[in-house]
Amino acid sequence: MEAVKKIQKKRGTVVSRSGDKSIVVRIDYLMKHPQYEKYIRRRTKLAVHDPANEAGVGDFVEITPCRPISKRKSWRLVKILQKAVKE
Fold first, then answer.
1. DSSP conformational letter for 72
2. Beta strands in the chain (DSSP E)
3. pLDDT in tens, 54-68
4. Domain 10-82: which topology?
5. What's the Rg (C-alpha) of the chain?
6. Which of 12, 50, 54, 78 could form a Cys-Cys staple with 27, CB 3.0–4.6 A?
7. pLDDT tens digits, residue range 7-60?
8. Nearest-5° Cα angle at 26, 39 to 59
9. Apex CA 79: angle with CA 23 and CA 12, to 5°?
10. Do residues 75 and 27 lie in contact, with contact meaning Cβ atoms separated by under 8 Å?
11. Could you tell me the pTM of the whole model?
């Protein structure tokens, strides 16, 4: 029986539409400081492939890793979980 590898999915907020079929997603997380044991907010920004150009700035999205599409893009948009509220 083969081991089934679970594909990791991450959730984050779109902060930029960096070009055609590309978005930048910010992922916020908490980590414990190694010495002081206090929780610290951290973030990482990932370039994501959006083939349909459907995500906009402020949308909450789910992404998954994929083959490298360009120098920085190796993540792909899975779905938009929540659209941004327009005022």
1. S
2. 10-19, 22-32, 39-49, 60-65, 75-82
3. 999 999 999 999 999
4. OB fold (Dihydrolipoamide Acetyltransferase, E2P) (2.40.50)
5. 15
6. 12
7. 899 999 999 998 899 999 999 999 999 999 999 999 999 999 999 999 999 999
8. 120
9. 55
10. no
11. 0.87
